[in-house]
Every structure is written in C-alpha cells, then in structure tokens.
Specification:
By secondary structure, this protein is an alpha/beta fold. It contains 18 helices and 21 strands.
C-alpha cells in the first residue's frame, strides 16, 4: 500500500479541469480530502468547453449526455440530487439522418418507434432486424458494465475469466474478434443502416471497419436515454466546480503544470510555469496519457505512462460554430448528413490521412428543442446556433494549414445539396482545425479520443488509474474505461477510489 502524505500543505493536486478532473476534485472534497485543481485554461470543462461566437455561448465539444446513471450515482454518494442541480431534458428523437439520394430517417429514443421508422424506411424485415440488433447491443452492454466499464483496468484473460465463471452465456455477447462493420452486416441488409450504426465507432474516434463489434453497445446506451442540458453541456462542468469549491476544493486557472516532482517516497510536488512549485501529497493527472509519455510533465510522469505515445491516434475534427439564419432542411437538435461512400471516407482518414472529399457532416442545432417538434425560435428566420463537424485525421502537430483549405466551402456546399441553406453572409462563424486542437490539448496532434479503438486489444491497452509512481494517478478519456463524458467521469471516480484505497 502506498503511503500518501496529504495535508493542507500537501494536498492532492489535480492537473486539468476536464470532466475527469472535476469529478475527482468533487469526490475528494466530499471525502474531506484537501484538493487543489490547476488548469491552463481560464474556465473548467476541458473538451466540454463553452465558446462565445459573437455574444452567444456555444457547446464547442460534446453536445449530449448519456449514461446519466454515472452522475446520478456520483451526486447520490455525496447526499445530493443530480436532477436538482443539473436539470436535463430527454431527447425523444436521437438524431435525424439524411443521405445523398434524398432519403431520411429519424432514430427515436424508444426502440419500438425506431423499428417502425426503419420498417417504413427500409422494409418490415429491417425493422425486425433492428430489434434483434438492440437485443444484442443490450446483452453486450450488460456483459461489460460491471466487470469492464465500472472496474479498475481489467485484462482480457481476467475479464473473460470473471464473466465465464459467473455468466458464461455472456461471453458470446462480447464478440471481441469481430469488427463493427462485420457485425452490422449480420444484422442489416440495407447499406444505409450499416452506415448509420457504423457511425458509433466515431464516438470514440475510430473506424467502423477496424473497431470491435462491442461498440454496438452504444445503441443500448442511447436507448437508455440521451439527455440535453440548457444552456449547454458546459453547465455540468460549472456545477461540479461550484460544488467542489463549496466543499473546500481550490481552483487555479491560467496555471500551467510543467513537471511532477518525486522523492524517495513518490510524488512530492508540481512545478508550474513561472517557477512556482506546489507541494503535493498525491497527483491526479487529467490529461492525454500520450502527453505524459512524451515527457510534458517531467520524467517521472513519462515513466508512468510509457508506451502511450506509440498507440495509433484516434480522429480529430474540423468544426464550424455558426450563428446565422438557416432555411430549407428541417433541422432537429442532432442531424447527420452521410457521405455516399463510407469506406472511402475512412480510407482517407486513416489510410491516406487526409480530409475526405465527401465527408459525413454532423450538425447540432443548439437552439432546437429536445423533443420531436422544432423550436419556435429556430424557425422564425432569425439566426440560430449551429455546430457543424466533420472527422479529420489527428495531424495537427505536423500538417500544413493549407491541408484544411477549401473544407469550409465543401461542407456548406454539401449541406446546400441536402437542402440546408446556412446564410453565412449574415452570421458569425468560428472555425477550429486539428491544429487548434493540437495546441489546446498537446501531445496527440489533436486526437480528441486518445488512441484509436482498433482491434480487440485496444480497450485493454489504455492505462488504468494506478501507475508505477507512488501517489500518481491518471484520469480522463485516454485512460480506462475510455472516451466520452460519462466514461471520462468514471475514470475520475476510479482514480479517487484507487487513491483512497492506497491511503
């Protein structure tokens, strides 16, 4: 057991105020542990960030919340109600999907409604296949929730052994050696449906042609509830920071951590830019593990994350935040405009490592309502807030800026062909490229999800919370259990659990 030296003079220092760091700080403060959060940016949230375009705030990162039970449990363990502190709205329609041939499909939170919509879209048998797909997704999720998602970093043999001893039938649900595209081919005959559900791989920055079939569990996660927050998901970060402060946690923004210092007993300090050195009884690092492995927080941290920089990078993105009038295509909150050739798209992203000429485009209409009806404010001819996103290779640390030229025009011309006219001439627009993400989140070229989840080994190669350095713990979307708001939040909880056990 580690001997941690935590006191007011040597608190737990959390490096990074992303969702994992905020959850860790909140939980430690609820346990009465002195905690200090240092963050380079000027506000909490990390990738779950709030950005002003003109005078209006945008969600510039994640736009929905799933697995709300993670936060319900976090707040309940602190004697609080998540619903009271963070009001959420369930989305009746998960997303509107459109294809170049003019076809459209709305996917509903209720699987029976989705099955009816799919039957109308692609035939009755495809609707029945969808329900069988949902049953397999549910079985996959249930097989993995306790032993993988909630657990400290597992190994493949250990996971198989635990599941096999208690629930041998669940071993069939995991399907680690089948890729997602192959699994979807078993379920759906319509290529458009394979494309729709193959998009789940991009939720962790990966290709459906290389990611494991276990990612079909996303279908079950979405059917368990997709939640919207007003004025945006960044509100969750603000609430967690406020509650942690009320319980004694301290926050320092504009404070860049440069190195983690150690002594004979383990972690001893954190050096900041400008020369200040903070005493630390333990450190939780909420940053990309690849950045640690590169030595960006000193040699001790580099040794603790050895090998993380050698993993293939996940996807980055190009985004456009637009506050402008729209007309034509009837938007819902979440909209996906698919390319005509999905394999060519991922060959470009992961093979040639270039922007696809015909990318799939995600549009989050942030002024649209959470239910099936368009919000009144979004249909009156006035400006509305759009987040437009395409996947991009994580080459922001080595790509020439000209690599991104022309992408904006291609994207909005493509949207126009789908019928969505965005009046950029009478609006405000902000563009973000992999180069911007690489500067904001250094160490990975702008990869937004850490390493790519390609192959069955990928999920077991992410580092866990514990490291070989006494008093040093890892959290965030690049460590176990993986990327995404709820998974990163779980990593913060796992780091705290390990720290308290060592203490």
């Amino acid at each position: 057991m580690q001997s941690l030296r935590i006191s007011e003079q040597r608190p737990v220092v959390v490096i990074g105020a992303g969702i994992a760091g905020l959850v860790a700080a909140f939980e430690l403060s609820c346990c009465g542990v002195p905690v200090l959060v240092v963050e380079t940016a000027d506000r909490p949230g990390g990738k779950m960030r709030r950005t002003l375009v003109g005078t209006r705030p945008f969600d510039a990162g994640p736009t929905v919340l799933t697995m709300r039970w993670v936060f319900d449990e976090l707040f309940a363990d602190a004697g609080l109600s998540f619903a009271q502190h963070v009001p959420t709205q369930p989305a009746a329609i998960l997303a509107r999907h459109a294809w170049p041939d003019g076809s459209r499909l709305d996917l509903h939170a209720d699987s029976a409604h989705s099955a009816d919509a799919i039957a109308h879209f692609a035939g009755a048998e495809e609707g029945r296949r969808f329900l069988r797909f949902c049953a397999e997704a549910r079985a996959t999720y249930r097989a993995l929730e306790h032993d993988f998602i909630r657990g400290q970093r597992p190994s493949m043999p250990g996971l198989v052994g635990r599941i096999g001893r208690r629930r041998p039938a669940d071993l069939l649900a995991i399907r680690p050696f089948e890729n997602l595209w192959q699994a979807l081919g078993r379920h759906f005959h319509d290529a458009r449906l394979r494309q729709l559900f193959g998009r789940y791989a991009t939720y962790c920055g990966s290709s459906p042609f290389d990611a494991p079939a276990t990612l079909m569990l996303v279908a079950h996660v979405e059917q368990e509830g997709v939640w919207l927050l007003e004025p945006g998901l960044f509100r969750l970060a603000e609430v967690l920071e406020q509650l942690a402060r009320e319980r004694g946690a301290r926050f320092r923004y504009g404070a860049q951590a440069l190195a983690i210092g150690t002594d004979a007993h383990g972690v001893a300090s954190v050096a900041l830019a400008g020369g200040e050195v903070l005493g630390a009884g333990a450190v939780i690092v909420n940053a990309d593990a690849a950045a640690l492995a590169q030595g960006r927080l000193g040699p001790a941290a580099a040794a603790a994350a050895a090998g993380a920089q050698d993993r293939p990078r996940s996807l980055s993105a190009m985004t456009w935040l637009v506050d402008a009038p729209t007309r034509g295509f009837e938007l819902l909150r979440h909209n996906v405009f698919f390319s005509s050739d999905y394999r060519a798209e991922f060959d470009a992203l992961f093979g040639a490592r270039t922007l696809p000429q015909r990318p799939t485009i995600y549009v989050c209409a942030q002024d649209r309502s959470a239910d099936a009806a368009p919000a009144a404010a979004a249909g009156d001819g006035g400006p509305e807030r759009l987040l437009c996103l395409i996947n991009a290779p994580a080459d922001g640390d080595r790509a020439d800026a000209r690599h991104y030229s022309g992408a904006q025009e291609r994207v909005f011309e493509t949207l126009a062909r789908f019928g969505l006219q965005v009046d950029r001439a009478h609006g405000v627009l902000q563009e973000t490229t992999p180069e911007h993400f690489a500067r904001r989140y250094p160490g990975n070229g702008g990869a937004l999800y850490g390493p790519a989840s390609h192959g069955w080994r990928a999920s077991f190669q992410r580092p866990g919370a514990a490291t070989r350095v006494p008093g040093l713990y890892l959290a965030g979307g690049t460590v176990h259990p993986g990327p995404g708001v709820p998974m990163a939040a779980l990593s913060g909880r796992l780091a705290v659990q390990q720290l308290l056990a060592d203490r």
